[in-house]
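Narrative progress, year one. The postdoctoral researcher (J.K.) led the effort to move from monomer predictions toward full complexes, under supervision of the PI. The following entry was the first complex the group processed end to end, covering 585 residues in total.
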Amino acid sequence: MLKARNLHFGNRLNLDSFSAQPSSLTVVLGSNGAGKSTLLTCIAGLLEQPALQVEFNGADLLDLAVDERAKRLAFLTQRQTLDFDFTVDEVIRMGLHPLNLDAEQAEARFDEIVDALDLSALLARRYPTLSRGEAQRTQIARILMQRSIEPGLILMDEPLTALDLRHQQDVMQLILRIKETEGHCFVVVLHDINIAAQFGDQFALLERGEMLGLGGTDLLQPDLLSRVFEIEIQRSVEADGRLQFNAVMTND
Amino acid sequence: MSNPKALLFSIPALVLAVLLGLWVGPVSLDISATFESGSTDAAVLWQLRLPRVLLAGLCGALLALTGAATQTLFRNPLADPSLIGVSAGAALATVSVVVLGGSLLAGSALLSILGLPLISFAGGVLATLLVTRMAAQYRAISMTALLLIGLAVNAIAGAMIGALKYIADAQALRDASFWMMGRFSEANWWQVALLMLVLLVSLRLLQGRAAAMNLWLLGREEAQLLGVDVRALRWLLILCASVGVGVVVAFAGLIGFVGLMVPHLVRLWSGPDNRLLLPQSALVGALLMVLADALSRALISPSELPVGILTALAGGPFFLLLIHLRYREAGNA
């Protein structure tokens, strides 16, 4: 269970509390500048805030030494620059650094992720030669390599932005599988409401640093979403029961 | 992938280069005579050539090692202590003392050995802090921002060194000018011992954090999220780079581009992994500097070229080539 209190950072974020269940995927939704990245950065303890408290499965995350924190928390930030010629293989394995996995466990995890994210053909490539989408998949793989053996906390800031539709589904399916088999708590920033509705268990709607709502699928109502995204959004229910959201362009 | 075998080639090559360095010089040595105590040949070998060759090798190793540390610190493969102003800061501090207060250092034996390196080191630390502080404000330390800051720091230090030379007397001016071009001709065993100590300690400290240095290259926050104590690592890199540059500048003057070229060549050969890059750079740096020093003595024998001129002649075009390759790649992306 994740419980964070006093998430305040200038005028970019102003939340009294945030929480998420174990073995769940919380999707953070909001327009540009709503405070989504700031929320993740706060939870990860990367911003200096004296009053902030982040409790995860009974432990105070911010009280832990950085190497202990890295065993429980993995965070995919938006930055993916690396100017040195490490191979994709080497970059993915950097995620193992804080963990004490034995070689067998590490290889099994590596193979599972590389296979699921379609990275096997890229393993020998030099990171600076990758396209944006390839680099993003490599970084996602590195973060998932870092996941703890015990159920841990995994934060991802816009993991799908540079990916094509097929690789977006690959990533989300892998996250879903890891969540259900290992019980990690995922907090993920996404821009696609349909993917959010397909995979999310909980939704956090942010507007100008304030929380408009934190709850299940019933939170995804057209009026609230239209306010969050500052564009009219319509909701329909498909024949198989799936929710479908569309942004409506108005020509006035 | 990394290729640890690369290390095995550098060691015999370095031994051969040292032998070559001992052999080259205005006086041709008789090998048997060099072991007779009191002979001229022995004095030339043990008091002149050996300390000089060792000083050159140690300076090359330290410059290459500090180059690798600087590139890691700035997460930029084109960073080099001489390009971003660290060497200039150390040089300014040293020239100030030579011109303004040389007599203060001559007073005590200990000060005359440690005084210049300490002052030079202080100048290097100040310049490094200035550059890192400024570069950090641009968040992503772009190569352009870093090189522009380095250009400015170099210009300021250069102007102040120029002013000092202007007010210096003829002897101090000549000393400062030769020293600025880089030279090993004043080598002695004290310098060799101190450089050896600095090299072993910094290599040991950096090697212990080599895996963390790899993670640092992903970004400061990314490294912290992977469990690296980033504040301690950053200080270690700043201090190792400044101490290394400081002692080299104090004893051998300004020798540019070694810290840029050597880690680059090593990366081409054995990859960017710092666990291999650091020791391998030190070995290759020593090798190249011993060869450059031998060449500087052989080219216009019995006189000699300042070695800094040779490294700049090789390094300048090398740097232009790197910029060309980098921007050609960037242009295609």
